[in-house]
Amino acid sequence: DWNPGNVIAEQVARIREQVGGARVISALSGGVDSAVSTALVHEAIGDQLTAVFVDHGLLRKGEREQVERDYVASTGVHLITVDAADTFLGHLAGVTDPEEKRKIIGREFIRAFEQVQRDLVAEAKAEGEQVKFLVQGTLYPDVVESGGGAGTANIKSHHNVGGLPDDLDFELIEPLRALFKDEVRAIGRELGIPEAIVGRQPFPGPGLGIRIVGEVTRERLEVLREADAIAREELTLAGLDAEIWQCPVVLLADVRSVGVQGDGRTYGHPIVLRPVSSEDAMTADWTRVPYEVLARISNRITNQVPEVNRVVLDVTSKPPGTIEWE
Ligand code: XMP
User: Fold this and answer.
1) Is 33 marked as binding a ligand?
2) In which pathway does it act (predicted)?
3) Atom of ligand 1 nearest to the CA of 278
């Protein structure tokens, strides 16, 4: 019988054997796979593990706190947060092409992570220890998709923001390699990781950076972050989290339309809601969210986010539309 407790016990023993006394690092993204693989390795080797979380400034409201406070409180993982928003936003200035944004964000993520890595390696050396291992949250479907070879997971460039270049001198620890997503979630719950993290819907590595159509700026991120938080809250309150695979909220930053808000004419931006139902993100259909729920989201966003004067619903399936707008 499959049960999460057995898998944990088995993996803990294997990880201890693989690692010995060496030090290990892990990149946390805020997503389910990295959260669970990191917690599992922590269960095995405690403070020999250092987790690294890069705040690229493209996170949703509350995400950083969720990792720094709730995840750390529930797992005891030793965490380093890299404050990299200024660097990321600096490199994104003036960039509007979606693939260009992805490339920059991916590159800067690796730079930020490598910096911490160098610091940790230097620190360990000074103490006569070694940092030899890197945790990866590779799942079974990733292994299959990438041809199955050891260490070849995470090659989908599309999903590679949390992935790392292969010229690094690290041995990988991939405790989730034989598992499917629902099994990973069960293990995460067994390890006491908060439901908000374990049950989280997919969120792209480049974050809100690919949900602003147009240049990414601090002000625009703030607008999108507020609108996204309202939409997420209302969808959850309406009990739709199980039905919705994910719901990108997109700011059309270069589009303006005339509106009337309060006692005056406005010239604001539209927000797009993109709720989709899907099995695996390869194909998707738009979710028939009840009108009352859409009405609440629209009212709240246009009342509470002054820069937004219009909320529109994306009713396109995938294909032809992708889930994200960029
Ligand atoms: P699309 O937009 O291609 O998205 O239908 C399919 C799934 O992939 C996610 N996605 C990404 N994830 N880095 C990621 O880590 C990316 O650059 C990226 N682009 C899309 C998207 O959220 C959806 O779940």
Assistant:
1) yes
2) Purine metabolism; GMP biosynthesis; GMP from XMP (L-Gln route): step 1/1
3) 24
Closest residue by Cα to atom 4, ligand 1, is 323
- Residue 146 Cβ < 6 Å to ligand 1: no
Q: Which CATH architecture has domain 211-313?
A: 2-Layer Sandwich (3.30)
Report whether residue 103 contacts ligand 1, using a CB cutoff of 6 Å.
Answer: no
CATH number of 4-198: 3.40.50.620
In this prediction the pTM is: 0.91
Q: Is 157 annotated as a binding residue?
A: no
* DSSP for residue 246: B
Residue 134 contacts residue 170 (beta carbons within 8 Å): yes
Mean pLDDT, rounded, for 69-77: 98
CA-closest candidate to residue 249, choices 320, 308, 318: 308
127 lines ligand 1 (CB under 6 A): no
Indicate the SS3 state at residue 234. Answer: helix
Q: Which pLDDT does position 169 carry in this prediction?
A: 73
Q: Does residue 246 have its Cβ closer than 6 Å to ligand 1?
A: yes
Q: Is 73 annotated as a binding residue?
A: no
- 29 annotated ligand-binding residue: yes
Confidence (pLDDT) at 147 = 67
**257-261 vs 249-252, strand pairing mode:** unpaired
Closest residue CA from atom 3 of ligand 1: 322
pLDDT mean across residues, the chain: 93
Q: Could you give the ipTM of this predicted complex? A: 0.99
Sketch the domain layout of the chain as residue ranges. 4-198, 211-313
Residue 248 to residue 120: CA distance in whole angstroms: 36
Could you tell me if the CB of 318 is within 6 A of ligand 1?
yes
DSSP state of 192: T
Whether 157 has a pLDDT exceeding 80, the answer reads: no
Q: pLDDT digit string (tens) for 249-270?
A: 999 999 999 999 878 999 999 9
Tell me, in angstroms, the distance from the centre of ligand 1 to residue 279's CA: 14
d(CA 147, CA 152): 8
> Tens of pLDDT along 22-43?
999 999 999 999 999 999 999 9
